[in-house]
Amino acid sequence: MRTIKFLFILLAASLVSFATYAQVDLSKPVPNDPEIKTGKLDNGLTWFIRKNKEPVKRASFYIIQNVGAILENDDQNGLAHFLEHMALNGTEHFPGKGIINGLEKHGVGFGSNINAYTTYDETVYYLSNVPVDKPDLIDTCLLILNDWSDYISLTDKEIDLERGVIGEEWRTYKDASSRMLFDKVIPVVLKDSKYAKRDIIGNPDVIKNFSYNTLRNFYHDWYRTDLQAIAVVGDINVDEVEGKIKTLFSRIPAVQNPPPRFFEEVPYHKETYFVLATDKEASQTSVSVLALHKAVPRENRNLKYLRDSYMISLMNSMINTRINELLQKANPPFVIGYVSMDSYFPRNNDAFSITATARQNEEALALEAVYTEAERTRKFGFNKGELDRAKARMLSNFENTYKQKDKIDNDTYAQWIQDYFLTGEPATSADFDFEFLKQVIDGISAEETSAKFKELMIDENKTIIVQGPEGSDIKHLSEQEALEIITKVKNSQLTPYEDNATGKSLIKEELTGSEIIKTVPLPEFEAVEWTLGNNAKVVYKKADYEKDNIILLGYSPGGSSLYDVDMLPSATMLPMVIGTYGLGDYDNITLQKMLAGKKANAGLTLGEVTEGVSGSSTPKDFETMMQLLWLRFEKPRFDKEAHTAIMSRYAAFLANMAKDPSKMMQDSLSLFLTNYSPRTMVLNNEMLNNVDFEKIKKIYSERFSNAADFNFFIVGNVDDDTVKPMVEKYIGSISSNHNKEAWIDRKVRPPQGKFFRDIQISLTVPKATVFVSHSNNYKYTSYNNVCLKVIQGILDLLYTEKVREEKGGTYGVSVNISPQLNPYPSATGLIMFDCDPARAKDLKMIIYEEIDKMVKEGPSKINLDKTVSNLLKNREEAKLHNNYWSSALYSFYYTGINVNDPKNYEDILKKLTVKDIRKVAKMFFSNADVADIVFRPKNE
């Protein structure tokens, strides 16, 4: 009797995964996150509210408009996007720049926290991470959303001012990639639909000349409650916010007899389309075969849809793992390749894409190789081993999200709500996602996934897309040649994919380790410093801000400064290529298979004055990360075939980069700002030709051979009794000696005095790019560092107001002021913007005028207060993440400054006066070396 019962238990256990899967009724709807409260007002407006405490005392406010560029008439081309801008230029309750000015006083920054975007089918506005412990800010934000819904002012004056800003955004936006995609590719892929005639940014002539009422008509036709949703997520009282939404938004009248919100259909086509899109500024050549599918309708996005989405993710993962293996063999047939099923531009379409970035004049080779892998999969499918690894990776990712669900931030939840409102994409909870995946994943077989791949790789509704640069020495694939390659691959005698065996253990040696011989408490960080028997120093801090996350950092003095110029190309490329070599006894392909399902990594960095390690893991995979760290030091792998493969891919990638204006400007700046130092490495094919495999081995073995010269930092949700033995075993087993190295100051300096360059380059769209750099020697102190952050923030506010808004001269001015301690204490301020070439001189004068004004008078008290509030707000949010603490510890050991101590940050900020900022601005700017560089079109 007991034997029969025991056998029954074994049988039941063996069937548990099947039974669990069989019990799931996949026709049922997907349950939404129960923490999301939702409803619909009588006027048609939908609302969603969710309580969330990441970050604490913050909330995000969204208004989601089911409205985009597809709804424009021809005389409104670009006005959906234009209207998005106008929402920040005056509403009934917030005239002019009232929204931005009002929120900036509370540290809510324009761009980072106040922003919006427009696509073909939607327009979304958001106020992100607003401090809701401030009086009345919830009411203020809801009133802003209310105004965006129905009360945008759209005054003649503000419309005219914004024409210039939009024109400059168009100038910046219309690079080679955008021109090829929207002007050439989309009109073919989405042929005979309205999507083929819209590119969101719009037509410059329309933007310059549309009548005021044309914009107002679009607003009144489409910004209406039946097409809108409000989403509020954050550290709030849900019931109170619900009451406020109902009271405020119910007052908005529903539009009577509104025009129907239509959805464009992209016509199905049996024949294969072809498009060749070239541009003289294009930097890469690519070839794609794209097949459109109808997206699953919202009413069918049930449990089966969710399970299918898991299957498609597994499918994408497996096929791209195969392609990555191809890329690690000598002379790979393409530079980058992928095959995937994913969403596409029109909301109601998905796309199955087969894509490769090719070497110049090798598009045929690239297409044949990538299409062969797709066809191999269509014919023979996937096997169980690769599916098991893909499942392990997926389960690990879902488990990580589940364990860190309290760190899902407000904006992520708001975006999930947005997708649910717009498309019906399930807005599930992390609990449901993980549990449902565990229920169904065992039932997903290799056979079923293979059948799904075959179903999606169709021969109809297909477009072949070839993109690349123009040139007399460049030959692109023709339509006939592309079709012949596809036919050839389909008729070829392919063999199934071979899934080679993997190793069983990362480390085969017995590690003796070394014990902790000295312990120093660090109470200011609630951390501890250990010195091991091999003299390695390890700093450990228990931090559970992210429950399923551990961060590893480490550094040693030296870096590339210890090498002469002939070694620098190899030193520069070392961290970029070393990861492709593999590790220990395993090439990179085998290593990645062995790490499937584990969330652990450990890589290397090599800077000018330090070399370092960085890694991360979950608590469960902490030992794996430590094993990888040990292998990086003790058993690096130098694989000549992998080296040849990655270097050939870099060479191909850079082949046409010389025609890319952005790359030309970046390289020129690097040379200018280092006064043409021979130590300045410009990443081009000339530099790559000087990279030597043996030199990489030499540099690696010298930089990563001595644990005693390293400080290691471990921060995360792992206990002392787990960390100690792992540290002693793995870091304690790294070789060491008594040598202590130091970096060398190679005297690389910016040009002294005033450095001017006015450079003409070939440009398709007439555009000037202005760079103004200030460099100065600098006393590296907490006070000075904080003041420079404040000066950067104030200049950002000033240039947004003066150059963008008042002059309509640019889409945005970038300001970055950064201090450095080594190899010599200095600070550099880099200011950059794009504009109409004819206006470059006048707009640049504003840059200098505002700096001069700050030096002479200091900033306005309002701008000082706004910047301080923003920095304090961001600091408060940063402290709730492990990364803040690992960076603070690193900084403490590297600079000697405890940036976590309030006296080194918060206390300074709170006491700053206009006079203080004026004094530091004068110290930095007055005697600075200045590089003034303008790139403009040839013959301008």
Overall description:
The protein is an alpha+beta fold and 940 residues long. It has 4 domains: 36-249, Cytochrome Bc1 Complex, Chain A, domain 1, CATH 3.30.830.10; 273-491, 2-Layer Sandwich (Cytochrome Bc1 Complex, Chain A, domain 1), CATH 3.30.830; 516-638 and 656-733, Metalloenzyme, LuxS/M16 peptidase-like (Cytochrome Bc1 Complex, Chain A, domain 1), CATH 3.30.830; 754-937, 2-Layer Sandwich (Cytochrome Bc1 Complex, Chain A, domain 1). The protein is 42% helix and 19% strand. The protein has 31 helices and 23 strands. Strands 12-13-14-18-15-17-16 form a 7-stranded mixed sheet, sandwiched between helices. A 6-stranded mixed sheet has the order 1-2-6-3-5-4, sandwiched between helices. A hairpin with a 5-residue loop joins β9 and β10. The protein is globular and about 80 Å long. The protein starts with a helix and ends with a strand. 42% of the residues are buried. The model is unreliable at 1-22 (pLDDT under 50).
Mean pLDDT: 95
Query: Distance between the terminal alpha carbons, to the nearest Å?
Result: 96 Å
Rg:
29 Å
Overall strand count: 23
Number of helices: 31
Shape: globular
**CATH topology heading of the largest domain:** Cytochrome Bc1 Complex, Chain A, domain 1
Give helix % range.
40-55%
- Whole-number count of domains: 4
Low-confidence stretches: 1-22
Structural class given helices, strands, pairing?
alpha+beta
Specify the biggest β-sheet. Answer: 7 strands, mixed
CATH homologous superfamily assignment of the largest domain = Metalloenzyme, LuxS/M16 peptidase-like
**What is the topology, as strand order, of the major beta sheet?**
12-13-14-18-15-17-16
For the record, the CATH architecture of the largest domain stands as 2-Layer Sandwich
CATH class of the largest domain, please?
A: Alpha Beta
